[in-house]
UniProtKB/TrEMBL annotation:
Family the UniProt entry places it in: Belongs to the polysaccharide lyase 3 family.
Organism: Alteromonas gilva
Role this protein plays: Catalyzes the depolymerization of both polygalacturonate and pectins of methyl esterification degree from 22 to 89%, with an endo mode of action. In contrast to the majority of pectate lyases, displays high activity on highly methylated pectins.
Residue stretches in coiled coil: none
Designated name of the protein: Pectate lyase
EC number from the UniProt entry: 4.2.2.2
UniProt keyword annotation of rRNA-binding present: no
């Protein structure tokens, strides 16, 4: 009898231990580049490619993830009902991931294993290979393929459960969620340039889309505090202190589309940086046609004098428009190993040197002043050439 009870307990424990993730509807986001698994072009056809794109949370980026009882999961696209499928039963590195009608075969079964800090690997039962950002691309449109698991950022994913617009309100904290705010306007207050203000939204491995931050309520903007965060199609009516701050150690904060306006002498006082980057070993991505309006100090700045300051901090800025005046676009601390990569940047009235595009600084500790070294091109810390910038 004791032996039977032991066996039953072992079976219960073993079955439970497989379920690293609860079944549900998720947006699946890459640790490497902050982009989401995406069925290309919203296709509902069998054989459509699965890639990665800016995290917008559309139905072709939402997946019903279901535990199958043997420790594996099915992953089915909401818009088509089809399953992620190892194409043509290919067991080699580089195998394509596509969608196909669900059959429950091993090429549609996936091990989802927790790897720490809220990240998971997704490994095919068929081949024991992991879904991988192909060639470690940082850009939207990167393919998702299979490769032998080695634990790199391109093989780690966060699962953001799809929530509702009711979760989107001033002062909210979102944890492991994707929320479309439905066009709401939210805000707290704005005490000029004060850095002690609360954030309007706090994102902990979460993403929001389609929200307006009120001109008189921008406070300290949106904080990304852990994991990967995306702010898609967000409108900052008038920046208060900062539009958003990256505080996610080892994570990625992405701005996808949307716009930010800053008025000189308005609610937020003097023009300042739009996006602040405080966390180390982390990345801020600004893309998707984001547009800055009004008068601004900088688009992005690696913190010059944070407490326990250091790096590296990385920025990837592409497909961005500056429609207004700005002091400079990006500021890196070269002594901390920061790097800004800039492509396809459009600046109103641009001429060489006005405004400066990428400036290098000496990063210091809290209470000290950060020294500016000046504008650099094609350096180890400013990866941008004059051909990457155009005026209009």
């Amino acid at each position: 009898m004791k032996k039977l009870i032991y066996v039953l307990l072992l079976l219960v424990y073993t079955t439970g231990s497989y379920a690293a993730l609860s079944s549900g509807r998720y947006v699946i986001v890459s640790k490497l580049n902050g982009n989401a698994l995406d069925v290309e072009d919203f296709s509902t056809e069998g054989g459509a490619n699965v890639m990665t794109w800016l995290t917008l949370g559309n139905s072709n980026q939402q997946f019903d993830v279901t535990e199958l009882g043997d420790g594996t999961y099915s992953i089915r696209a909401v818009h088509s009902g089809m399953s992620l499928d190892v194409w043509e039963w290919n067991t080699a590195d580089g195998a394509e991931v596509r969608q196909w009608s669900y059959s429950g075969a091993d090429n549609q079964r996936w091990w989802i294993e927790e790897r720490g800090a809220g990240y998971f690997s997704i490994i095919s039962k068929l081949s024991n290979r992991a879904i991988d950002i192909w060639e470690m691309s940082m850009y939207a449109g990167a393919d998702a393929r299979l490769f032998s698991y080695w634990g790199g950022d391109g093989q780690l994913w966060t699962f953001q459960r799809v929530g509702s617009s009711a979760e989107c309100y001033a002062g909210a904290t979102l944890t492991h969620r994707f929320v479309d705010c439905g066009g709401k306007t939210i805000g707290l207050s704005c005490n000029g340039d004060s850095e002690s203000q609360s954030p309007v939204l706090t994102l902990h491995n979460s993403s929001v889309r389609n929200v307006r931050i009120a001109a008189n309520g921008g406070a300290d903007g949106i904080h990304c505090t852990a994991g990967n965060c995306t702010m898609a199609d967000v409108t900052w009516e008038d920046i208060c202190e900062d539009a958003a701050t990256n505080k996610s150690e080892g994570g990625t904060m992405t701005i996808a589309g949307g716009s930010a306006y800053n008025s000189n002498g308005g609610y937020g006082g003097n023009p300042d940086k739009i996006f602040q980057h405080n966390s180390k070993n982390s990345t801020t991505i600004i893309s998707g046609g984001f547009t800055a309006y009004g008068q601004n100090g900088k688009l992005w700045r690696s913190c010059g004098n944070c407490s326990n300051n250091g790096g590296p901090r990385n920025a990837l800025i592409y497909d961005v428009t500056i429609s207004g005046s700005i002091g400079s676009v990006a500021g890196v601390n070269s002594n901390f190993g920061d790097k800004a990569t800039i492509r396809n940047l459009r600046i109103q009235g641009y001429s060489p040197g006005s405004p400066k595009v990428c400036e290098e600084y000496l990063g210091v500790q809290s209470g000290q002043s950060s020294t500016k070294w000046g504008e650099f091109w094609n350096s180890a810390y400013c990866d941008v050439s004059p051909a990457d910038v155009s005026g209009f």
